[in-house]
Amino acid sequence: MHPAHARVRGSARQRASWAVVAALAAAACQVQRELQITSQPSGAEVRVDGEAVGRTPVQVPYLHYGTRRVTFYLDGYLTQSQVVEIQPRWFNVFPLDLITEVLAPVGWSDLRAIHAELEHGSGAIPLPALEGVLERAELLRRSGPEGPRSAPATPPKPVGGTPDG
After folding, report:
1. pTM
2. Are 74 and 41 in contact (CB under 8 A)?
3. How far apart are CA 44 and CA 96, in angstroms?
4. Same domain, 51 and 85
5. For the chain, where are the alpha helices, taking DSSP H only?
6. Residue 140 belongs to domain spanning
7. 90-147 confidence digits (pLDDT tens)
């Protein structure tokens, strides 16, 4: 084999080795971000931003900070939904994140706990409330793209009897 070919082959191996080392170093720098989601009782189906992620207790990794909607579903219990604002910790705020993730990566973790106390009940809408929703939906459907000019205020209908008797 020609010595020039051996140098090129060795150079390619060195570049590949450095690429692997750089990739491992970059992976070691990333902060571990995780939502730890629990409920009482446990076993509720959890959706984060509409995507099913498992049943409680569940740990869900996340990459970006911001607002998340966490919804809990469990038979025999009312559905519960929470809007959770996830702000960066001090070690993930620029310019400190350059130090904590690149210059001194020591295995930082950002774990957020989200808990829901589920209430017994069913998600069924009572018939009088459903009728009001359907009336308002029909009003919106007929109003066109500009929306209703003025929605009539409809008082809630009594449940289980007449108001005067």
Report:
1. 0.56
2. yes
3. 38
4. yes
5. 3-29, 96-98, 127-143
6. 124-152
7. 766 677 666 666 666 677 777 889 999 999 887 665 666 778 888 888 888 888 777 7
